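Hi R.,

Here's the chain you asked about this morning:
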Amino acid sequence: MTRIPLMLLFALAAACGGGVRWVPYAPLQVRAPAARGDPARSYAFALTRARELGYQIQQADPRGRTIRLMARLDAEFVGAPEWSASRSSSITIQAEPDGRLVLTVDGRHLRDRGRLVHRRLHDELTGLAAELEAFLAGPGPPRGR
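And here is the predicted structure, written out as tokens:
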């Protein structure tokens, strides 16, 4: 008697996406009107916002206009016995020549030759893209003195 409701629960969870761990992956693009088409400004705005959001910055390259962030999905495991930096996932933000930002991911939370990404990393990537887009829609950070 208890098997039927339990099977129904599993079927419902699968139908609602509760059992889906891997979703299709594609890099995300963020428009940056506040940068006025300047990739250096886009880079500076993205770096500022990533710091404000508390991301651990693994690498920041102003010449290449590239920022590499540790994914929060892995940051919560730093120091745990099973964690290793070589197996972590990261988010890369690249400022394109037209001022757009392109967000990509890499690391252990990609599968099927980069065609699938773990749902939590996908959610983090889309959330970061939304934060950057909202930030770059306005005036951006104040200019230095």
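One quick note: The first strand starts at residue 22 and ends at 24.

Cheers,
M.
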